[in-house]
Amino acid sequence: MAWGGDDDRRPEADEGQEELDETDYKTQKDAVLFAIDVSASMLQQPPATGKKKADTDSAIAAALKCAYQFMQQRIIAQPKDMMGILFFGTEKSKFRDEAGGRSGTGYPHCYLFTDLDVPGGDDVKRLKALVEEGEDADEVLVPSKEPASMANVLFCANQVFTTNAANFGSRRLFIITDRDDPHGNDRNAKSSAAVRAKDLYDLGVVIELFPISHAGKTFDVSKFYDDIIYRDPAAEVGSPDEVKTSKAGDGLSLLNSLISNINSKQTPKRAYFANLHFELAPGLTISVKGYMPLHRQAPARSCWVWTGGEKAQLAQSETIKVDSATRTVDKSEVKKAYKFGGEYIYFKPEEAASLKQLGDKGLRLIGFKPRSMLPMWASVKKSTFIFPSEEHYVGSTRVFSALWQKLLESDKVGIAWFVARVNANPIMVAIIPSRNPDDETSETPYLPAGLWLYPLPFADDVRNVDLSAPPRPADELTDKMREIVQNLQLPKAMYNPLKYPNPSLQWHYKILQAMALEENVPDQLDDPTIPKYKQIHKRVDGYLAEWKEILAHKAQGLMESRAVKREAEEEDDEPPTKRAKPAAKKAAGSAMSNAELKAAYEKDTLKKMTVAELKDVLASKGVSAVGKKAELVEKLGEWIEENV
Amino acid sequence: MADKEATVYVVDLGESMADCHNGRDESDLDFGMRYVWDKISTTVAASRKTWTLGVVALNTDETDNAQDCEGLEGYENISVLQEIGPMTMSELRDLRSLIQPSHSHGGDAVSAIVVALSMIEAFTKKLKYNRKIILVTNAESPIDDESLEDVANRLNDSNIELIVIGIDFDDPDYGFKEEDKSKAKRKNEKILRKLVDQCNNGVFGTMAQAVEELAIPRIKPVRPFKAYDGPLTLGDPSKYESALSIHVERYFKTKRAMPPAASTVVINPGRGGPSQSETLDEDTEMGGTEFSGVKQMRTYRVDDPEAPGGKRDVDPEELEKGYMYGRTVVHISDSDMAITKLNTKKSFTILGFVPFSSYSQFINMGETGIIVAQKHNEEAELGLSALIHALHELESYAVARYVQKDDSQPQIFLLKPNPAIEDDFECLYDVPLPFAEDVRSYQFPPLDKVLTVTGSVIKEHRLLPSEDLKQAMSDFVDAMDLSGFDVDDEGKPAEYAPIDDLYNPTIHRINQAIRARAVNPEAPIAPPAEILLRYSKPPEKLIQKAKSEIEALVDAAEIKKVPAKAQGRRGRKEPVKPLSGLDVDALLGERKRTTISIDNAIPEFKQILATAEDDATVESAAKQMGEIVRKLIQDSFADLFYARAAENLRVMREELINLEEPAMYNKFLTGLKKSILRGELNGDRREMWFKHIIGGHLSLITQDESEVSEVTAEEAKAFAT
């Protein structure tokens, strides 16, 4: 799965507490087949206008660039999901070559350019060559004289999905075309297409249409495509599936318009949990579904590769459990026990299960608080998005909507007890509303409107940081700093994550792509998370210089007043006794015995050792000897405490 | 660093401790030991060498202590059960067998304290320790009160804390008074209280309160961890002289605590099974010696068409590291492994500023940090303070890029000013924000309007709340306010359920159960402490208070539960139509399908069933589908068609459940199982059976899934194995 349903899972499966119960679901994988129309109008270059932002891409080039970007994103974000590209309306026809499959003649004017599969380096390379170099050795992008039969195109897609992604939870056909009536008034052709579309619907394939309109001409879906497209059965009630037409104009190139339409469908909407009962009060329960629109994306883990053969091959690993005598143990022998005082404490399986049974799956409201009452540091993990569902309780949507509106209006949050799945550990959450993305006051125009389950820290999760940081009054420095802050607002006065790709992730896959495609490895990354230093300098250079000058002056003053105070204190006190003692004898650190170390530790005289001695002794104990003196002393202290 | 501890428990084992008092059905000793065992097992759980403890028993039949050996008087019937030292499970076990009521009553509690005190003095010398003596007694045996002052002085000199917890001691603060107290006990209680009062550091309490407080979870203290120590910059100091650089330190403010993890173990070969440990036989021990840990061994295989089963084992020595790029394996030699890691330098630098109003908490991606100025650095102190105040005054946050150390992955942090208005602590808090890749754009319909297919906006709809419902919701939310629902010590309204009071129920439930089992392996698991479930439901008082608002909301909401049956069969009622509303079934009707082809099996199967008018049609369709499944398995090269066969089966199963024809599926599957296990489908197809059918939850349809099924859950389970 592209994203594990549960980030609570810890790396060592053996010690893992949260055992996933997701086997109920169908394989939650996604397969997308791009069906791109190769018509003469799709291939036509946009008229040269000489304007700076004028479109330079033909519709087909834009579609291919989208597919290429989609493929790259898919490899990063959904490495187990499939993708394929089918051209239709081509002069040439091609299906698979493999035995048992049909030959190209089965689907005239359909050209399966990339078969549906997890994309590989070769696929990326071929598509890249076509997109960037226009390398079309096979002359694929030549329109046929007759348009392709849409019934054929749809059945071809049906076969691709049936054989390659038989049990995928999500299967989607992306049709990119500029022809709104491929069959004109040919009633027969239209009905066969409608029948094949129904087949796809029954197969569980969702058709997403990405129409392209050329200057001045609107794409009329009612001419043909309304007979082909079904409402997504998983979609919320009351949401007509919006078909957005891509076109050049409004300062947006065709490519950008298409990319934004396709990107919004990049990830299939997968529910993290369905049919969760949300109990607002005794006697009032509604049902909601949960989603994870925010999820930390990390580079895939490294794997083991066997290079003994002709081609590097992935080695599949299998684990077997063995006991202390390296005897293989059977699954039925294995028991769970807790380590305690150097031994194991055992619970019978039913007892262990009952320990985790602290409440049924569900969300139960216990009351409301003003949003300002959430401490600003109270954050532990990402939030889950919930949205109402009418499937189990009719009327859920209106109640949910009323709650959402009230929370926004009064700036309040709900406090609730939350168990996400059977056997999941209960947590406390704050229920926070998000505004409509098109609301101008929305904090998050890139996220949907609804409610968020924001996990609250438990008392156990809060570190007691006992540092001295006494408050100071605001002063002249504050005033100067205000000017700096005011001049360095982020664009649109907000942090929009979409503008900041993760540099580590981008770099990782850039390198991998270069290696997989056998290209030159790039030496640099365009990283928007690095501040615009030049701009900062330009905008606030003067303020900064002034501020620093005042700071230096004030700091000097503070330092002097402190020194005076210290002296006064020292005069009052008796001379510190420690100083009177003779210096610790100069022993090389590692020559000290454990007993000596312990004695020094207990007398609190470790800090009298020199840095060199400390490093010496730490190294001899196999502890990393990096850090400042205070850290070294602390490390050594810890070592002594734990080992001597 | 956690301080070292030396604690001596003085436990009264006198014969009167075996009696039950004050309506309890456990003896005084068992009652008192609940407290002692809980404390001791907490020490065992920590398994730290520096947390040490010893145990002295009072009123033992024998006498075994250093003072008595030296010939001192008054130390009779006092025994040292365990010298001070770290505590492990085996010591805990030994101790358990020693804690039994005696037949004696002549021991002096104050003498026992002296014994304990000498033990601590001898063990800790002049070193830095938290020293503690905990006395648990019912104070029925006589106490000599002559040398109280000397004892107290010695305790004070050695800096020892004395905690006396008496069974049924009177405690007006807690509200306990024993009515039928014996004269002797009253006198002894007085003496002990006097002793505690003379101590610099003394606690005197009654056992009932101590036992009650055991339920309150104790949070494991964790030392603050410094994650970053370096400059926080604005601009690039290496390029521009004016760029700002403040030396800061960053610590974790929140860090998720995890429940203890269970290890995988096996019963040691050659020893008895678990049934033995469940007997009450004194000799059998619970715990460690019986079990041993399980290790994982990995084997590696690669595809090899020539090997039997299509795979063969490879030697781990022959393997190298690599990554997957899509389905392509990218092999990277060890020396090149670092190449995919972005080179970064440790840094913390501000990108810009955003107003408070542009942020909402739910975009936080994780745990919080706390940022303060470097100690004894006047420039840093003043500089950071100015930044904090400026941000606060402008209601702005800073957005910064954070690299914890060289070559760490960069993160984006939101820095929030805390100008010490509510607390006494001036700092910045930071939370991680999402990157572009972390956001998935899911589309949802609006919540405050309904869009029709034609694009018009509707404001009144069954999916939208009426004015009545909105008003009822508003009243309800206001009535259920928690901000002043609780009462503080001074009787003023206080926040209900503040974070300080939210204990992780899982962690404390498991820990309590482990401790209880370590002390008493035979006892069943007690139910979770009430305090752990306190916030699992709204407070009863609040529900009562908001009763009328709740009722009004329930009325206005008009929620109707969908009957369980209808959920399963939705979609059968009306034929599905495309957006245009075209009746495709009618188109199909012209050439109605009756046969199912292998290429288009699922749609054709569904369509036949959707228009089936008699059982014979259904049966014929199911039969054809079954044949297709068998054929796919039979023709499959290795596992090539298994997924497809399984998907066909899944659809068949689902549709037949909906049509209430489970028997057709069950009959087919029984036959299929036979064929597979007998190897009749062109070779060994067991993988299809176990991985795809059983593993894919495609086994027999049970009565739980379809009322008309004749297969019980047990039968299905037996069938699947």
UniProtKB/TrEMBL annotation, chain A:
Compartments it resides in: Chromosome, Telomere; Nucleus
Q: Does the keyword DNA damage apply?
A: yes
Alphabetical GO CC annotations of the entry are:
chromosome, telomeric region; Ku70:Ku80 complex
Compositional bias segments (type: Basic and acidic residues): 1-13
Substrates-to-products reaction catalysed = ATP + H2O = ADP + phosphate + H(+)
Alphabetized UniProt keyword annotations: ATP-binding, Chromosome, DNA damage, DNA recombination, DNA repair, DNA-binding, Helicase, Hydrolase, Nucleotide-binding, Nucleus, Telomere
The family database entries (InterPro entries) matched by this protein are listed as:
DNA_bd_Ku70/Ku80, Ku70, Ku70_bridge/pillars_dom_sf, KU70_core_dom, Ku_C, Ku_N, SAP_dom, SAP_dom_sf
Q: Does the keyword DNA-binding apply?
A: yes
UniProt-annotated catalytic positions: 26
- Determine the domain of life of the protein's source: Eukaryota
Family recorded in the similarity comment: Belongs to the ku70 family.
Q: What does this protein do?
A: Single-stranded DNA-dependent ATP-dependent helicase. Involved in non-homologous end joining (NHEJ) DNA double strand break repair. DNA-binding is sequence-independent but has a high affinity to nicks in double-stranded DNA and to the ends of duplex DNA. Binds to naturally occurring chromosomal ends, and therefore provides chromosomal end protection. Required also for telomere recombination to repair telomeric ends in the absence of telomerase. KU70, of the KU70/KU80 heterodimer, binds to the stem loop of TLC1, the RNA component of telomerase. Involved in telomere maintenance.
Protein name as catalogued: ATP-dependent DNA helicase II subunit 1
Q: Which source organism does the UniProt entry give?
A: Achaetomium macrosporum
From TrEMBL, chain B:
The answer to keyword Nucleus applying to this record is yes
For this protein, the record's InterPro entries field holds:
DNA_bd_Ku70/Ku80 (IPR006164), Ku80 (IPR024193), Ku_C_sf (IPR036494), Ku_N (IPR005161), Ku_PK_bind (IPR014893), SPOC-like_C_dom_sf (IPR016194), vWFA_dom_sf (IPR036465)
Any idea which UniProt keywords this protein has? ATP-binding, Chromosome, DNA damage, DNA recombination, DNA repair, DNA-binding, Helicase, Hydrolase, Nucleotide-binding, Nucleus, Telomere
The record ties this protein, via Pfam families, to: Ku (PF02735), Ku_N (PF03731), Ku_PK_bind (PF08785)
Coiled-coil stretches are none
Q: Which catalysed reactions does the entry list for this protein?
A: ATP + H2O = ADP + phosphate + H(+)
Q: What does this protein do?
A: Single-stranded DNA-dependent ATP-dependent helicase. Involved in non-homologous end joining (NHEJ) DNA double strand break repair. DNA-binding is sequence-independent but has a high affinity to nicks in double-stranded DNA and to the ends of duplex DNA. Binds to naturally occurring chromosomal ends, and therefore provides chromosomal end protection. Required also for telomere recombination to repair telomeric ends in the absence of telomerase. KU70, of the KU70/KU80 heterodimer, binds to the stem loop of TLC1, the RNA component of telomerase. Involved in telomere maintenance.
Protein known as: ATP-dependent DNA helicase II subunit 2
Organism the protein comes from: Achaetomium macrosporum
